[in-house]
Write a structure and sequence with these properties.
Oligomer: single chain
InterPro entries: ARM-type_fold (IPR016024), ARMD3-like (IPR039868), ARMH3_C (IPR013636)
Distance between the termini: 33 Å
Strand content: under 5%
CATH topology of one domain: Leucine-rich Repeat Variant
CATH architecture of one domain: Alpha Horseshoe
Number of helices: 31
Largest sheet: 3 strands, antiparallel
Number of strands: 5
Structural class: mainly alpha
Subcellular location: Membrane
Pfam family, one: ARMH3_C
Organism: Funneliformis caledonium
Shape: elongated
Protein name: 11677_t:CDS:1
CATH class of one domain: Mainly Alpha
CATH superfamily of one domain: Leucine-rich Repeat Variant
Strand order of the largest sheet: 3-4-5
């Protein structure tokens, strides 16, 4: 029996008298009989050998499985089990085509079975494929066959097909913890083969799939049992692996960001820089996305934005898991930033830049290289956080903010991102008002991180307030300020943006307080965290503000918001902050109790003190209001201001996944598994 090429028909079914002859593929003939409950292999010793030489008609096979009911599947259980076992045996044969056809058969068979709505997924799937008594014999053979096909000596195509089959099995249920088939990959792990696929030149184009599969396996029942993938991730120290993961992460981020810019180019004046940057990134990475292009003619941009981000962005879970579990990886990330200092030979006006021609060839503009892969993560993060409108995007927003929390708790990483000599330009989302300052000049990464978080605060003020995300975003700001205060790092930054965002959040909570009754504790925690950041700035801002004007602007914004703080006083006085000091579901900041310090005491003192001075100044100068340019009146009256100096304003509860974030991350994992299954396959 020879393998048909494309659609070669080898069987003839005799038609009714006068009708035309109907030709069928041999593959279709066999599987028609197979799904009717017949055994076409009976009495044919070469049947299976010849079957796996036939090109698999995946479309037909999937349709058969889609059309058949669960009860009908169980009725032909013996045929299913035989097909499953024979496919596994064929995977170990020497003939490459048979191997590939066996894998294609299994992929279609398992996808069809997994699409059924089983009451008990694992029990019924195992019963159908092997029978309960044979599972511990057959499935280890299955995993061993996959492992063998992933090892050296096999062709790149066979390795990829084995990888594809494993993804089908592991992600068969979006709740991977309820898929007990994954337990067999724990007993005989495929960690090393996946690493080899990731790094080998001939399979590096599927590194994304290998990385994602490895991380999903590392999340399987990781808190309930010993997970060999997680243990190996924790102990991983191979710099080449770290570099490859960051490489793939950065390229995926560029690709995913381009989807947003295709809908709305939010920086038209910078399009030459962006397109050149995408080309630069693509030139140094093994595979690349489309970069950034002029936006297409989208009839409904808002609907288009809701469908984003691209499913491939699921790779940020890998970034989270490595940062949370492997300190060496955090150090590698910091070193990747240090690798890109401004080189003397490429400076233009003190910036690391490349000159590129414009369309007409007569002008040139500077392109500041984005350097570290981390910059691409910050860029896509700003787009996701500002377009956070669905439960799906909220899942990714959670992971992004957790990543930032983990990073800004690390002193080594903080030191690098605060260093003034390492400055970068990162493209941040400017598709929704209010817009942050369009900082097109190089600056330390810590300022860019603050902008990403402020972008979230400004663009997610809704009556159904995502308090968990707000606690995280405020936790990022608080940790950064705590580091700046402790190390006396003076940060050049548009600080007024932070004050306006925090006060805007407080004003929103105050004006909508009646809508938050059912989630009052969480809202109160957000409120207190925002106030404590302001208190930290009032008390210790002289240690991290770049100049006295920044201090003046802080007091100016507080005074402008006097009515808001007056309104909040009644809420604060009724709130039991001692209770909030206990661990909560976010556990990002341990607020002080009201018995230790009246959280609005200093703020109210500032409002009262300066309001009297300003009113007197306005009468003297015959003006109705004070402007930011006239904040000198504030500076002139610091000497008579008496404030309390509270303790522990810079303290916070270090992040720990267990126990508060385990339920959240399990739900996030389900979203990510679903996205990974519908990813864009990134093949050359």
């Amino acid at each position: 029996m020879q393998s048909p090429t494309k659609t070669e028909f080898t069987g003839i079914i005799r038609p009714a008298y006068g009708a035309k002859t109907v030709l069928k593929e041999k593959f279709v003939e066999i599987y028609e009989s197979f799904f009717k409950g017949n055994d076409p292999s009976a009495g044919q010793p070469n049947f299976w050998s010849e079957l796996f030489l036939l090109k698999v008609n995946v479309v037909y096979l999937l349709k058969c499985l889609s059309d058949i009911s669960q009860d009908q599947l169980l009725a032909i259980k013996n045929n299913i089990s035989k097909l499953f076992l024979k496919s596994i045996e064929t995977m170990k044969e020497e003939n490459v085509q048979r191997k590939i056809n066996a894998i294609d058969t299994l992929c279609a068979l398992l996808q069809g079975i997994f699409s059924k709505k089983f009451n008990n997924f694992s029990f019924e799937v195992i019963n159908l494929l092997t029978g309960l008594n044979n599972a511990d014999t057959v499935f280890p053979k299955f995993v061993d066959a996959i492992k063998c096909l992933m090892n050296d000596g096999e062709t790149a195509q066979v390795k990829y097909d084995a990888l594809r089959l494993t993804i089908v099995v592991v992600c068969g249920n979006s709740n991977i913890n309820q898929n007990s088939l994954n337990g067999y990959f724990m007993k005989d792990d495929i960690f090393d083969p996946l690493i080899n696929i990731m790094l080998a030149p001939e399979t590096s184009h599927v590194a994304y799939e290998a990385i994602m599969l490895l991380d999903i396996l590392a999340n399987y029942n990781k808190h309930e049992s010993k997970n060999p993938y997680l243990i190996k991730l924790i102990n991983l120290k191979n710099e080449a692996v770290f570099e490859k993961i960051m490489n793939v992460l950065a390229t995926t981020c560029v690709n995913c960001r381009s989807k947003y810019i295709d809908i709305q180019d939010d920086d038209e004046a910078n399009k030459y820089f962006v397109s050149s940057l995408a080309s630069y990134v693509g030139s140094i990475l093994s595979w690349t996305g489309n970069g950034t292009k002029k936006h297409s003619n989208v009839s409904d941009p808002e609907l288009a934005f809701v469908r984003l981000p691209s499913a491939n962005v699921s790779i940020i879970l890998v970034f989270y898991d490595l940062l949370n579990n492997n300190k060496r990886f955090v150090d590698h990330l910091a070193k990747s930033i240090v690798k890109f200092p401004i080189s003397a030979e490429s400076k233009v006006n003190g910036r690391d830049s490349t000159t590129i021609a414009t369309e007409n060839g007569k002008e040139s503009i500077e392109m500041v290289r984005d350097g570290p892969y981390f910059c691409e993560f910050l860029s896509i993060s700003s787009y996701i956080l500002q377009h956070n409108r669905t439960n799906r995007t909220a899942s990714y927003a959670n992971v992004i903010l957790l990543i930032l929390v983990i990073l800004v708790e690390d002193s080594t990483f903080n030191k690098v991102i605060c260093e003034d000599e390492r400055r970068f330009i990162v493209r941040l989302c400017r598709q929704r008002p209010p817009l942050l300052q369009n900082a097109k000049f190089p600056r330390p990464l810590v300022g860019i991180i603050l902008d990403v978080v402020i972008g979230f605060i400004n663009h997610n003020l809704r009556r159904k307030l995502q308090t968990d995300l707000y606690s995280m975003s405020l936790g990022v700001i608080h940790r950064i300020m705590s580091y700046l205060k402790k190390n006396c790092v003076r940060l050049p930054y548009h600080w007024s943006e932070i004050w306006q965002s925090l006060i805007g959040l407080l004003k929103f909570i105050l004006s909508n307080i009646e809508y938050f009754q059912q989630d009052r504790d969480s809202v109160n925690e957000v409120l207190l965290s925002a106030i404590n950041i302001i208190n930290l700035s009032v008390t210790f801002g002289d240690s991290f503000f770049p100049d006295p004007i920044s201090y003046d602007n802080l007091f100016y914004e507080i005074i402008r918001a006097k009515e808001t703080f007056d309104g909040l006083s009644s809420i604060v006085n009724k709130t039991n902050f001692t209770k909030l000091g206990s661990p909560t579901k976010s556990a990002f900041q341990k607020p002080m109790s009201s018995s230790q310090f009246d959280v609005l005491s200093n703020i109210n003192t500032i409002c009262t003190h300066f309001s009297l001075k300003i009113e007197g100044w306005k009468l003297t100068n015959r003006v109705k209001s004070i402007t930011p340019e006239q904040v000198a009146i504030i500076n002139a009256n610091y000497d008579t201001l008496e404030l309390v100096t509270p303790e522990k304003l810079d303290h916070y509860t270090p992040y720990n996944e267990i126990p508060y974030h385990v339920p959240l991350l399990r739900q996030v994992l389900r979203v990510i598994v679903e996205d990974f299954k519908r990813r864009e396959v990134l093949l050359d």
